[in-house]
Amino acid sequence: MFALSSGIPPAAIAVVRISGIDAAKALQALAGRLPTPRRASLARLTDTDGGALDHALILWFPGPATATGEDLAELHLHGGRAVVAAVEAALAAMPGLRRAEAGEFTRRAFANGRIDLAEAEGLADLLAAETESQRVQALDHASGHVSRAVAGWQARLLALMAAAEAELNFADEDDVEVGEGAAQRVLGGMATLAGEMEEWLARPAAEVIAEGLSVVIAGPPNAGKSTLVNALAKRELAIVSPVAGTTRDVIETPLALDGIAMRFSDTAGIRGEGSDPIETIGIDRARAAVEAADILLWLGPPTLVPDHPRTILVAAQADRWRGDAAAEAEAARCDLTLSAATGEGMDRLHHMIVAMARTLLPREGEAALRQRQRTALAEARDWLTVDPGSCEAGDLILLAERLRLAATALDRITGRAGVEDMLDALFGRFCIGK
Predict the structure, then answer these.
(1) Do residues 382 and 298 share a domain?
(2) Are residues 222 and 298 in the same domain?
(3) Spatial distance between the Cα atoms of 139 and 119, rounded to a whole number of angstroms
(4) 238, 265 contact by CB (below 8 A)
């Protein structure tokens, strides 16, 4: 198979990859020779009729130590559209070669053991990353951070399984080290592993980073919510009007603050009841958005703030109430004073949101888990969690079965069991040349 693996032409350089058993034949047909493996070489490329295609750098990577685990060739062409089209046409005319499907290079890498499923998911996220936090998190996955942790757990599980097997089946052999308390030793090892897995499960989910933290702006009608979301986005997203109940639905916009992806939501003004059925629906949706928010910006009286673990109390529209003693006293109970119209307090609000958001993200060096990975890891933890006072805790046969089931759950993280349908969905996210 072959594909353009660099950006869409025109560009300074276009990289075409060829992978599979006929990669050597294809490269020889175009360049007339195979270069020294893993060394770039300048060559004149021609089609089957001898017509010149390009002067390009060619590279040859014999398998299996390649990106795909197969023989692999690369053509570094001049990046014009006509050049790329001519080379692709020449390759397509060769027997045994075809254009790659979306994600097929990465899928072959997975099938040939060059990467595991967790690394492939990280690579997919890296290709889609738009913010710094998304890039860092995806790079951790693609470079095997999660896979190394799983490999460590699997190795320790195997050791525990071997200990249980030795006690159950080979206790009478002189060269097998067993003894009293074998079940307790296995149980202790299981508890330690379960504790480490619980620490990973306590971390934020990777989807929070990929999809963005939910920041909801809420408060009573005419509190300045729409003006604030427009100021944060630096464009007119929401209609601003002195008429109460203008915002009827949740208006969401993606923004990045200091490299952190966020989704800011402007909501309908929350009051006892709406003036009509449409506004009432909007109020209900606003309350639901508040409950689901990662961070709440409350632009209303502190006495009416909803119960939320991460709330910033904002005394908004400061340009309107300056000098009003009652308003000044109420503002003193808030976290900051702000005027979206004049810009007062906007920088401080920015820093407060970012600081709160960082508490929801993995710390430096920590990798978050995708929902699929979290589900599998939670299952493994559950199989390893045994009440020390139960009858099961002293039964090596049952403990050995729990260890086997935990190992099976971990296998699903790296893609060793029952993932064919999910692979189709995953690799379809990749570009053709990946």
Answers:
(1) no
(2) yes
(3) 9
(4) no
